[in-house]
Amino acid sequence: MKILVASKNPVKVNAVQEAFKMCFTNPVDVAGLSVKSDVSDQPMSDGETRTGAKNRVNNLMHADLKADFYVGIEGGVDLVDDRMQAFAWIAISNGDKLALGRTGSFELPPEISQLVVQGLELGDADDQVFKASNSKQQNGAVGLLTHDLITRQQLYQHAIMLTLIPFLNTELYD
Asked: What is the CATH number of the domain that holds 153?
């Protein structure tokens, strides 16, 4: 089974690979390709983040590369009761059907939230506060904040599996 991921980020590619291996018995061949999200580098709302995931899948499908599934993952933030929440939207298509899912969300510390509001991407704000380097291609904000009890890959992998539900139960979803 050929799966294309709309990112070369190893965290996203590995999350897709592990989720598909758990959900399907067929061997999986997962490849990442950089495509545009056509939204801000740091989406600042639930809607913008969801749009980014869908755009990534659409742009990937228009790259004229054949696959059984196309996967877009877009991380974003949104203010809820004046507190910044981080999360990601997942979009998966088989070329005919599009399924959407979302990770759980978690509250960002005020210092990181302030840096994001000032224009930094979440990963860069995390690196600055935690004195880390390239955390978005490693454990991510969720890993840093949970002391790696939940990594970015685990957060995505769970949501990818949930997003695959319509493809695992085709008789229930038209």
From this structure: 3.90.950.10
